[in-house]
Amino acid sequence: MLFSSIAGSLILKRAERALVEASPHIPLGDEGPVFREPWEAQAFAMAVALHENGLFNWSEWAKTLGSVIAEDTKCSAGQDYYRLWLAALERIVAEKQVIGDEELHIRQHEWEEAAARTPHGMPIEL
Amino acid sequence: MAHDNHDDHGHEHGHDHGEMSHLDAMEVRVRALQSLLVEKGYVDPKALDLIVETYETRIGPRNGAQVVARAWSDEAFMARLREDATAAIGELGFSGRQGEHMHIVENSPDTHNMVVCTLCSCYPWPVLGLPPVWYKSAPYRSRAVSEPRAVLGEFGVELPSTTRIRVWDSTAELRYLVIPMRPAGTEGWSEEKLARLVTRDSMIGTGLALDPAGLDA
């Protein structure tokens, strides 16, 4: 399985380095990327996995994320980095015609509805 | 809810109150994107879990270690933690949605506490850090309740047979922070240095605080 062996963790280490280089202003701690909330790490992991599966190369990622950051009028890259990161992921999968806007919006509503019908304390599932 | 260390299989993880879950806007967007990518075969959920697991110690502020270090150092703070843990933790500037409804349980030579969780979105990750991936497995939860000593043994934690093991269900209304025993040989240590001995696992009771000898100066 991907990343599960020692060789896999070296692949991840290399992917992490490449991703950090391709991602302007990414928040870093002593050991590499740091995340304020769990969803930020999930968004990071999606970029690693999509690259690993060949959906985009690092220069495409750098270009997309760079444009999202440049277009962000609130200049929130320091504050709210992974919100922009997620927007870049959404844009790149739309550009690659993997997931369309409408499909994404429908699915977002489905998750909101799933949360609303799930008693607090139970796992939220579609 | 607490389970003493005896057979207690009639155990339910559900909640019988009417409150429903909520996902914030970013969580919704992440789940939507991820679930579509998984369905279309662009990402493998197990690979995503493994990547996130690699970063699990770098997620969230992990405030709990500072709380434990303060509790070890300041008897008055410890008393306030016992009284109202949410408020006492708030004194350190840590608050917010997932930091509410905190309750502490203290380890001693007589009692070791271990926490299991339904792993809803209300897991107090700002305090405890991200839960380990195995924490969400049903077998872990049921075995932690039915044979906690064996489960602890698998984590390399051997306790004297005279130490009672209590297992606590973390829920949306009651989220537990284990205060591990302060290791011997740490007299006079600063809170900052003490906090380095407090691991995520020690705060959910699947580990002990680190041995100070293992910490480089």
Q: How many domains of chain B?
A: 2
The major sheet of chain B is characterized as: 3 strands, mixed
How do the strands line up in the largest sheet of chain B? 1-4-3
Helix-strand string of chain B: EHHHHHEEHHHEEHH
Unreliable segments of 5+ consecutive residues of chain B? 5-17
Taking the sheet with the most strands of chain A, its summary is:
2 strands, antiparallel
Give the structural class of chain B. Answer: alpha/beta
> How many structurally independent domains of chain A?
1
Helical fraction of chain B:
25-40%
Principal-axis shape of chain A: globular
| SS-derived structural category of chain A | mainly alpha
Q: Would you tell me which CATH topology of the largest domain in chain B applies?
A: Nitrile Hydratase, Chain A
The CATH superfamily of the largest domain in chain B bears the name Nitrile hydratase alpha /Thiocyanate hydrolase gamma
Describe what this molecule looks like in 3D.
The complex is a heterodimer of chains A (126) and B (217). Chain A is mainly alpha-helical and 126 residues long. Chain A has one domain (6-95). Chain A has helices at 6-22, 38-52, 58-71, 81-95, 101-117; strands at 28-29, 32-33. In chain A, strands 1-2 form a two-stranded antiparallel sheet. In chain A, α1 (6-22) packs across α3 (58-71). Chain A is globular, with a radius of gyration of 16 Å. Chain A starts with 5 loop residues before the first helix and ends in a 9-residue tail after the last helix. Chain B is of the alpha/beta class. Chain B has two domains: 21-54, no CATH class; 60-214, Nitrile hydratase alpha /Thiocyanate hydrolase gamma (Nitrile Hydratase, Chain A, Alpha-Beta Complex). Chain B has a three-stranded mixed β-sheet, with helices on one face. Chain B starts with a strand and ends in a 13-residue tail after the last helix. Chains A and B meet through α1, β2, α2, α4 and α5 of A and α1 and α2 of B.
